[in-house]
Specification:
Blueprint: H1 2-18, H2 23-30, H3 52-62, H4 69-78, H5 80-94, E1 103-107, H6 123-132, E2 136-140, E3 165-170, H7 175-187, E4 190-198
Parallel strand pairs: 1-2, 1-3, 3-4
Helix pairs in contact: 1-4, 5-6
Length: 212
């Protein structure tokens, strides 16, 4: 159920982006209706949401029923990592930031906020896309359990550099980033001309460059 609800929010986000409408503003308006169920667009990782629906779909097919809505939701949510990257690159181009080896900071690796678990986290998909583009990537997550992390994710850092990054992506809304760091400190990591992509609109729309 949650997978389908998030897929619906993600699809709205894709549509609103085409219409130059801020998704967060629409959801805030919708919340004024008493029976609105408040979900948010985002990356769908982990196991119970990102994997288990496939078991149900498989069982349905074995019993001669072809599921449509379940798999449509899965397909849409699986595409969101690529969309986040494409939207980030678009924002960088709009600010005339060169895409030749730009310095990118990824904040958050676990599959959801305030959680140590990195299994099936979509943050890794975003990092992989940037690495294939030969971008200069730094990854920071003081919450995540990185004991068994793949060796290819060497750009893990102990602390972000100040006035260094062309783009900062806040992918996981850890309380550590929102409350302990805050917007002011996060912005100190960026160059004067830079992009702050706040995936889940943790901060005010006027303070960030993009979100879902």
């Amino acid at each position: 159920q949650r997978d389908i609800n998030i897929a619906f929010m993600n699809e709205l986000s894709l549509i609103f982006d085409k219409l130059n409408i801020n998704t967060n503003e629409v959801l805030n308006a919708a919340k004024t209706k008493w029976n609105f169920n408040n979900y948010f667009p985002g990356l769908v990782g982990g196991h119970c949401i990102g994997v288990d629906p496939y078991y149900l779909a498989h069982l349905a097919k074995k019993n001669k029923y072809k599921p449509k809505l379940i798999l449509a939701g899965r397909e849409l949510n699986e595409k969101m990592s690529k969309y986040v990257v494409s939207k980030t690159l678009k924002l960088m181009k709009q600010k005339n930031i060169k895409l030749i080896n730009p310095k990118i900071l990824i904040l958050g690796l676990s599959f959801k906020e305030n959680c140590t678990d990195i299994r099936n986290s979509k943050s890794f998909e975003i990092v992989d896309i940037f690495l294939k583009k030969k971008f200069n990537i730094n990854i920071y997550d003081p919450i995540a359990d990185l004991t068994n992390i793949d060796r290819k994710y060497k750009p893990l850092i102990k602390k972000p550099k100040k006035n260094y990054y062309d783009c900062v992506l806040l992918l996981v809304k850890h309380n550590y980033f929102i409350n302990d760091y805050g917007l002011k400190k996060i912005k100190t990591f960026s160059k004067n001309k830079s992009v702050l992509f706040d995936l889940k609109s943790a901060f005010k729309n006027s303070s960030i460059d993009g979100s879902l």
